Amino acid sequence: METKRYTEAYSMQFQSYATQCFNLPNYEVYAMSELIGLGVGLAMGLVGLGCGYGMGIASSAAIAAITEKPEVFGKTVLYVVFIEAIAIYALIVSIMLTGKIA
């Protein structure tokens, strides 16, 4: 009997926290956390693919430009750094979304 009361109290506490956090009815909270997990995985995967593809194109063009004019090294490295920054932003967003689940 005591276990049932404790379980009900814990369940009620979690449900009230979930409804306050997401402003959703109780039954939709679990579906929302699954969708957030799917979104995090898709975001990181697609950003990784896009950044890898862009890095390949930008790096090959940068190497070609540097062989012709060595003084453009700083400008070409800057383009590659911008591509890396996009991947870092995606990582930060995925960490923030994962914090919503836990």
3D architecture notes:
The chain is an all-alpha fold and 102 residues long. Helices cover 91% and strands 0% of the residues. It is built from three helices and no strands. It has helices at 2-22, 26-68, 73-101. Helix 2 packs antiparallel against helix 3 (73-101). The longest helix has 43 residues, at 26-68. It is elongated and about 60 Å long. The protein starts with a helix and ends with a helix. The model has no long low-confidence stretch (mean pLDDT 78).
What's this model, at a glance?
The chain is an all-alpha fold and 102 residues long.
Task: State the order of secondary-structure elements, H for helix, E for strand.
Answer: HHH
Secondary structure tally: strands = 0
Structural class: mainly alpha
- Annotation field: number of helices: 3
Supply Rg. Answer: 23 Å
- CATH superfamily, please? F1F0 ATP synthase subunit C
Distance between the termini: 30 Å
- Helical content band: over 70%
Q: Which descriptor suits the 3D outline?
A: elongated
Poorly predicted spans: none
The major beta sheet can be summarized as: none
CATH architecture term: Up-down Bundle
Number of domains: 1
What is the percentage of strand-forming residues?
A: under 5%
Give the integer mean of the pLDDT values: 78
Q: CATH class, please?
A: Mainly Alpha
- CATH fold call: F1FO ATP Synthase
